[in-house]
Write a structure and sequence with these properties.
about 170 residues, mainly alpha, 6 helices, about 0% strand
Length: about 170
Amino acid sequence: MNLDPGFGSMVRTQKGLRGSSSPAQPIKENGVPPSSIFSGSSIRLNMVRKNNYYDLECVPMSIFWQIPQYFLVGCAEVFTSIGQLEFFYDQAPDAMRSLCSALELTTLALGNYLSTLLVTMVSKVTTRNGKLGWIPDNLNRGHLDYFFWLLAIITMINFLVYLCIASRR
């Protein structure tokens, strides 16, 4: 059952354009969407710096600035899920397809736990010796931009490892 015919048809079109499917093709399809995620926190940070809103409890900024981020993250998750499910259904034996779908959801849960662990570790490391830290209660006083740079570096390392694995035959 295809609950999302738009994205499913795009995947089928891509499969038709590339010809015969080799075992490595579904893996290569997963790498592009997650790399398109960006953050709009720099807009908020620039507004705080420009208008000296550091001690305000509520920054006068519309919540609608978050729409592009959530849209791109949602699209990336949909494209990644389709690629993973296609990979599992093409490469797994019939008896293991349900288990592989469950493994996909398990990897999502583990990713969320690792994100929480990363935030906790960054908070503990950056608040040593009485420092304010990168992610304080008042985000206007913190350095959330450093945290996003750390995420960008981790993502780049992950992408390079992905390229090494996906380019093998």
